[in-house]
Design a protein that fits this description.
With 191 residues, the protein is mainly alpha-helical. The chain is built from nine helices and no strands. It is globular.
């Protein structure tokens, strides 16, 4: 455990770090859950993303146990906001196919967990600091979240992405909303 060794933490302290994050997440889920029906929930959602960012930056910069406890509390609060509002926000963005959109989002979440764990392991095995991993994973998570939330707008007919070719844009839009091409490229995703 690179983090524990670098900060000279006991196993008890390492467990307390994860516990404080989970407690903060749970409390925040209970408190923020009522915003799920609010029309401007996306503002609170993006506020949660900013709090996650702050918590992860604090984690990367932490030099002692107290700072790490504070960082875990802050990121736990951000994750609680994120978890409480993600499903209602996806349902609002995709009213006609919210179940499919939630399935895609959960699939991307699982893919992110596996990719994050593998890439973190490789970076640490290569001898680089675990502190380098946090900002990279955070940027990837924010980018994917922004892509999913902006899906209905960026996939409208006539919208061109300057970096990608049309068939690449079509693949991403089909992943975000398989009902756009239910008998073609979206067929297997729907199944």
């Amino acid at each position: 455990d690179t983090l524990g060794e670098e900060l000279h933490l006991s196993y008890e302290q390492r467990g307390a770090l994860m516990a404080i994050r989970m407690v903060a997440l749970t409390v925040c889920l209970l408190v923020v859950g009522h915003f799920g029906e609010h029309r401007k929930k996306y503002l609170v959602f993006f506020g949660g993303l900013l709090v996650i960012t702050l918590g992860e930056v604090m984690t990367a910069k932490a030099g002692d146990y107290r700072t790490m406890l504070l960082a875990m509390t802050v990121s736990g609060i951000g994750y609680g906001v994120y978890e409480a509002l993600l499903n209602p926000l996806i349902a609002q963005l995709y009213p006609d196919s919210s179940a499919r959109a939630l399935n895609v989002m959960n699939g991307l979440f699982s893919l992110g967990l596996v990719a994050g764990a593998l890439s973190t392991g490789e970076i640490v095995q290569a001898g680089l600091s675990w502190r380098l991993v946090l900002p990279l994973l955070l940027l990837a998570a924010i980018g994917i979240t922004a892509l999913v939330l902006a899906g209905p707008t960026i996939c409208e007919s006539g919208v061109r992405w300057p970096v990608l070719r049309e068939y690449q844009q079509h693949r991403i839009c089909t992943l975000l909303d398989p009902t756009r091409d239910p008998l073609g490229k979206g067929f297997h995703i729907i199944q």
